[in-house]
Amino acid sequence: MANENIMIVEDDGILAMNLQFTVMELGYNVQYLLASGEDAIIAAESSPTPDLILMDIKLAGKIDGIAAARHISYFLDVPIIFLTSYSQDTILQKAKTTAPYGYLIKPVSTRDLEATIEMALHRHKIDRRLKESEAKLRESEARFRVIIDNTQVGYFFIDRDGRFLNVNNAWLKMHGYKSSDEVIGQHFSLTQVETDLAAAKNNIEILLAGNIIPAGEFQRRCKDGSVAYHTFSANPVVQAGEVVGIEGFIIDTTNLKHLEMEKAKIEAQNRQLQKEESLVCMAGAIAHNYNNLLSVVMGNLEMAMNYLPKNREIDEFLNDAMKASSRAAEISRLMLVYLGKIYGERKLVDLTSICASILPFLNANFPANISLKTMFPVKKMIINAIEHDIQQVLINLVKNSCEAIGSKEGEIIIKISEISADGILCNHFQPIDWTPQVNGYVCMEVLDTGSGISDHDIDRLFDPFFSTKFIGRGLGLPVVFGIVKNHGGCISVESGLNQGSCFKIFLPKLGE
């Protein structure tokens, strides 16, 4: 016992003296012995503040003990024990509103008084410690809130139902939201990209079970529908032994991810350029040596046909050999076209007219199971080109589409349009290092309902002799590549297995 100071407020003088005597016998100091609520308020607010107040409910003066206790408790942290001769329920209920530390019915026994005072003082010490702890916790939470709100790292708290209970300013900024009101109460799937949703749900289940997951990388869906990237770490929040939710942090890595993607794209382009350079060197060497050897073969065949005695059987052998040599010479010519080594006279021509002029030839050789449709503009689409080469491009693309459709029912559409340089957005295009050189382009588009092209093969389509259909046949698209490249244009391909294909040829557009 530490000789705590006790204030006694009792308007019955004899009872007040008895209480004073008993309290002092119990080892406490009686700081004040008062008879009215007004005096109790004044004394309580003076220094030093009493450690405990014994307050009679019925007092002299205008203020009763309950009103005095309410006033004192509002401004001071002092435990109050009520004294009364009445035990009516209405008085008790009214007294409860001041949250007293005890309630004694007069006359009070020494034992009851001692026990009640000790329990009140002990409880008050515990309450004070609790209040101090709560105050420190609030201060800590406030500091944490300031840190969280001002950090560049996104913070989130998700409850057991998977709904956001808290997010910080950085998190809102990363997701494109202006206010937490747009997010609080929403399910976490609000910000999930569809392809990551299953993995996110699995992580949530693991965390809510009280387990730990490693940090990782995820995509996120922003308010405007765009996709961004971040690394994350998350942990279960445990209170009183129960997991009540999940909290975690995210660090935006969108710029880094875009740089990595751009780096990977550039590296892929460099590999493709190196491959193309190697193919060009190889094709050039083969074409050169092939032509030299072929010239000797064809020259000797012509000499044999001219000087050998006429013999039907020998003539047939020589004619077959000459036809094969001519076909071989055509392959050599196509290799030179791929290399851009075949030149011709360029002139201003209308792409629509060129395509329309070749339609009779296409229709005459078209399979019955495939329908051919055209979408040509009325307006002229003027380009500076070698007319025969552009016709060859269309023939090769249509032939490629026919082979992709095969024997099943299908459709091919030839479409011509104009497009600005900014509108040329392609995932797969050749030449890989091509960039627009003029503002306007003409687009020749060939769409088919064929078998489509896998992602694995799509970047190899324009390699000489590459084919997914027939081994050894594969100069159709490389010839298209060589012609388009020679005309300062590019080719884009959009396709997928069993989704058909769309080849787009972009050529510089000139004035009418």
Topology:
Layout: E1 5-9, H1 13-25, E2 29-34, H2 37-45, E3 52-56, H3 65-75, E4 80-84, H4 89-96, E5 102-105, H5 110-150, E6 154-159, E7 164-167, H6 169-175, H7 197-208, E8 216-221, E9 227-239, E10 242-252, H8 254-307, H9 312-339, E11 347-350, H10 351-364, E12 370-375, E13 382-385, H11 387-405, E14 410-420, E15 429-430, E16 440-448, H12 455-458, H13 476-486, E17 490-495, E18 501-508
Parallel strand pairs: 1-2, 1-3, 3-4, 4-5, 12-14
Antiparallel strand pairs: 6-7, 6-10, 8-9, 9-10, 11-13, 14-16, 15-17, 16-18, 17-18
Helix pairs in contact: 2-3, 8-9, 9-13, 10-11, 11-13
Outline of the structure:
The chain has 512 residues and is of the alpha/beta class. The chain has 4 domains: 128 residues, Response regulator (Rossmann fold, 3-Layer(aba) Sandwich); 102 residues, PAS domain (Beta-Lactamase, 2-Layer Sandwich), CATH 3.30.450.20; 83 residues; 162 residues, Heat Shock Protein 90, CATH 3.30.565.
Describe this protein's structure.
The protein has 512 residues and is of the alpha/beta class. It has four domains: 5-132, Rossmann fold (3-Layer(aba) Sandwich); 151-252, PAS domain (Beta-Lactamase), CATH 3.30.450.20; 257-339; 347-508, Histidine kinase-like ATPase, C-terminal domain (Heat Shock Protein 90). The chain is 45% helix and 22% strand. The protein is built from 13 helices and 18 strands. Strands 12-14-16-18-17-15 form a six-stranded mixed β-sheet, covered by helices on one side. Strands 2-1-3-4-5 form a five-stranded parallel β-sheet, sandwiched between helices. It has a five-stranded antiparallel β-sheet with strand order 7-6-10-9-8. Helix 9 (312-339) packs across helix 13. The radius of gyration is 46 Å and the shape is rod-shaped. The model has no long low-confidence stretch (mean pLDDT 85).
